[in-house]
Amino acid sequence: MESAILIAENVSASYRKNTVLHNVNFKVNQGTLTGIIGPNGAGKSTLIKTLLDLHPRLSGSVTFFQQPFKKAKKRIGYVPQRGSVDWDFPTNALDVVTMGLYGEIGWFKFPSRKHKEKAYEALKKVGMADYADRQISQLSGGQQQRIFLARALVQNADLYFMDEPLAGVDAQTERAIMFILQELKRNGKTVMVVHHDLQTVADYFDHVLLLNRTVIGHGKTEEIFTKENIGKTYGGNMRWLIGEEEKNVVPSYH
Amino acid sequence: MTYTAWILLTAALVGLSCGLIGVFLILRKTAMMADAISHTVLLGIVLAFLVTKEVSGPAMLLGGILAGLITALLVQWLQSLKVQHDASMGIVFTTLFAIGVILIATSAGNAHLDVQHALMGEITFIPFHTITLPLAGDIPMATALLMIVLFVVLFFIAAFYKEWKITTFDPALAASIGIPVAAMHYLFMGLVSVTTVASFDAVGAIMVVAMLIAPAASAYLWTDKLSVMLILSGMFGVSAAFTGYVIAAWLDTSISGSMAFATGIFFTVSFIFSPKHGVIAKAVKPAV
């Protein structure tokens, strides 16, 4: 069963005075794991933020589950870039994960024991249960990223957007995160991930969205993630990379 | 209550309200917004005076809230037109403050309002200006105003505690789960405004900035927990107010000046000796 749960039509957006996204069109089916790939400044983060109404959309329309964003909000989870928050904020790991439940808890109420337990379960899932009480500035980059992932998991959304969850993390964290993303996919969730490491794309994602201010290619990884398309996306500056594809990386998940 | 007791109570209320609000100013990295608002509420107070022709608490509060929100809106608007944040702030608050100063000089000069008073406050006069309340009897107007404002501040911090936390820590996530980040921002600016207006009489526009920022910045160095930071900041605010009074009595000098000076001492001590983030602790303990 394939159904488009995210449809973007003619989306454009600008950042400062420059148009960064124009005429972006794509449809995402349920149960896919998509890598959003493109060079720096291609508008990958801006695309996610624009879809989620966090950044003004100049034109076009976006629907989630055949509804506008406002109505589908509860079914959507968002993992911002790790660098977008101040990790010196006075709080601990469990508390940050609990924040994922604030929408569900509602106004004028405090998180209950039940919510804390849910958050703790999510921490366990990302292998961070031992760090629940740890002040967040004392966690490594990879651990902070896992906290962010746990926070998205407690939201129990159907569609997730993750902005560079694998940037600057250690190998163990990368494996842990990819394992969870694969599991989300197996459970019928849809995940879109901004990714920067071209060499792992084929192993990690079943779909790719090649982006450079507009959609260069979108579809199944084996069809779209070709040398030619990559060249088009990166403006031919990736010559060093061609040939790397033969490099035999054992796919860890499938 | 004695004259001194009223002054101490008033100072403590200033310290407590400012200490609590200050925590979020620091964590939201908008500490200097307090500076801007503390100046522009002068315009609000003057306008309230010109409209009502008297120095009344509620009118001043309303005028202050209005001026504070206008400041926040104008800063945001200039920023959306690509003016840098700090430049927008500098332009907006000096202009509004200047209008306030001109209005005082031309239209309100003979009243209770004057620029010197607005900048420095005069806590020593507070006990002379009383109002009669049903249960409490005669209490100084500034003190009554501060009690109301403290209650309002406590109410909003408690009622929206988790919303303050999430909009401060991660506004993008907050927005994505449907928390009105912009509305919370203006509500917060409103709270900063009322706190500033109420503290105005006691410590004035310049000193209130010290009360808003220094206790919270000190508390930030002592703890890794938001709730503890709020409690500590409130305690530091009250203690600094008391210490300031003692210094002023001892040296026979400006009370508001001494209080602001005391907040500086609290910060310096915290900065050096805090077991978590102090200079000594960092030197002794190897980096994690």
TrEMBL record, chain A:
Cited PROSITE patterns: ABC_TRANSPORTER_1 (PS00211), ABC_TRANSPORTER_2 (PS50893)
Keyword annotations: ATP-binding, Nucleotide-binding, Transport
Gene Ontology MF term list: ATP binding; ATP hydrolysis activity
Residues annotated as domain ABC transporter: 6-238
Domain of life from the UniProt record: Bacteria
A Pfam family per the record: ABC_tran
The keyword Nucleotide-binding belongs to this UniProt entry's keyword annotation: yes
Record-linked PANTHER family: IRON TRANSPORT SYSTEM ATP-BINDING PROTEIN HI_0361-RELATED (PTHR42734:SF5), METAL TRANSPORT SYSTEM ATP-BINDING PROTEIN TM_0124-RELATED (PTHR42734)
Membership in a protein family: Belongs to the ABC transporter superfamily.
Protein's name in the database: Manganese transport system ATP-binding protein MntB
TrEMBL record, chain B:
Keywords: Cell membrane, Membrane, Transmembrane, Transmembrane helix, Transport
Any GO BP annotation: response to zinc ion
InterPro entries, alphabetized: ABC_BtuC-like, ABC_TroCD
Transmembrane segments: 6-27, 34-52, 58-78, 90-109, 139-161, 173-196, 202-222, 229-248, 254-273
UniProt entry tagged with the keyword Plastid: no
Protein's membrane topology: Multi-pass membrane protein
GO CC, one annotated term: ATP-binding cassette (ABC) transporter complex
Tree of life domain: Bacteria
Subcellular locations according to the entry: Cell membrane
Record has Transmembrane as a keyword: yes
Pfam families per the UniProt record, alphabetical: ABC-3
Family per record: Belongs to the ABC-3 integral membrane protein family.
Protein name per its UniProtKB record: Manganese transport system membrane protein MntD
